[in-house]
Amino acid sequence: MQVLRLIFLLLISYSSGHTDPEPVKITSERDGEKVVIIAANPNPYPVTIELSMKTKNIIPGEAFPVIKILPANARDRVTVVRIADPSKSWNYETSYIFYMGDINAQHDNRFAYRLPYAINTTERVGQAYGGSFSHTGPNYYSIDFNMEEGSRVVAARSGLVVEVQEEFNEGGADRSYIQKANYITIMHDDGTFADYSHLRKNGAVVREGQQVRLGQHIGYSGATGFATGPHLHFVVKKASRGGGYESIPVKFKTKEGIITLQDRESYTAY
C-alpha cells in the first residue's frame, strides 16, 4: 500500500519587505521500485529547495535534507527513493522549503559597480556599510544615497529585472512601514541580486523579465517604506542556506577611482 503525503511547511521570501516567490510545486513519479521526486519552479530566477522526508519501507537515495538548486522556469528531479520491499506497505511524507536564489552563487569581486545615478551627478552617502540606523545583520553591506525624490535611478550593473514593486505611497521612520517600500530587484549573471529600494509610487520604468544594461535608467527615487526621508537604498546580496540572504561588500567606479564608499562622503558618477 502506498501512502503519499506532500507537506508544504514554509515559503520563505528572499528579504523583508519583498513579495514571496511563486510556489514551487513538488510531485512524484513511480518508476518500478523507485519513486522520483520532481520540483517545478515557475519563477524567473533560480530557487534553492530544502527537502526532507519521513519514510516507512523506503530507502533514501541521499541524506536529508536534500539541497537542490532549481533553475529559472525549470522542472527537474530533486531526489530518488527506493521501495525496500514492494510486498509490504510503504509510505512517506515530504516536507520542503524554498527560497529565492542559488546558495552556491559566487559574487564576481572583480566587478566595479557604477554609482546608481546620472553621469556627472554628485550624491552624498547618508548611511554606508554597518550604519547604525538600519545597516545591521543581513543588511550590513548596504549603501543609502541621499537623493531627492524623483531623482533618476540607473542600473549599477547589467542584469535581469526579477521583481518590481511600485504601488506604495507611504513611508516613515517606524518599522511598521518596512513592508511598504517600492523597489526593483535585478539578478546579475553571477547569480547575485541588487535591490534598489524606497522608490516613489509608480517609480519604476522597467518591468519584470526585462534585461537592463549598465547605466540604464530604471526608476525614480522616493521615500516609501522604512525611511526617514528621500533616499535610495542599494544592496548586492545572495541567498543563504535556510532562507533569507547575505549582503555582499562591493566597490564602485567613481571620479575619485574604484573605491569602497564611506559614510557621509559625496561621490560623482562617472
- What is the H-and-E element order? EEEEEEEEEEEEEEEEEEEEEEEE
DSSP strand count: 24
- Describe the global form: elongated
What percentage of amino acids are in beta strands?
Answer: over 45%
> What low-confidence regions span 5 or more consecutive residues with pLDDT below 50?
1-16
Tally the helices: what do you get? 0
Calculate the terminal CA-CA distance, rounded to whole Å.
Answer: 68 Å
Cα gyration radius (Å): 22 Å
Instruction: State mean pLDDT (0 to 100 scale).
Output: 90
The portion of residues assigned to helices is under 10%
The largest sheet is: 11 strands, antiparallel
Structural class: mainly beta
Characteristic terms for this protein:
270 residues; mainly beta; 0% helix; disordered N terminus
Describe this structure in words.
The chain has strands spanning 2-11, 25-31, 34-41, 47-56, 58-60, 66-70, 74-83, 90-100, 112-114, 122-127, 142-146, 152-154, 159-165, 171-172, 182-187, 193-204, 211-212, 217-221, 225-226, 232-239, 245-247, 251-254, 257-259, 266-268. The chain is built from no helices and 24 strands. The strands form 5 sheets. Strands 10, 11, 12, 13, 15, 16, 17, 18, 20, 21 and 24 form an 11-stranded antiparallel β-sheet that branches. It is elongated and about 75 Å long. Mean pLDDT is 90; it is low at 1-16. It has 270 residues and is mostly beta strands. Helix content is 0%, strand content 51%.
Topology:
Layout: E1 2-11, E2 25-31, E3 34-41, E4 47-56, E5 58-60, E6 66-70, E7 74-83, E8 90-100, E9 112-114, E10 122-127, E11 142-146, E12 152-154, E13 159-165, E14 171-172, E15 182-187, E16 193-204, E17 211-212, E18 217-221, E19 225-226, E20 232-239, E21 245-247, E22 251-254, E23 257-259, E24 266-268
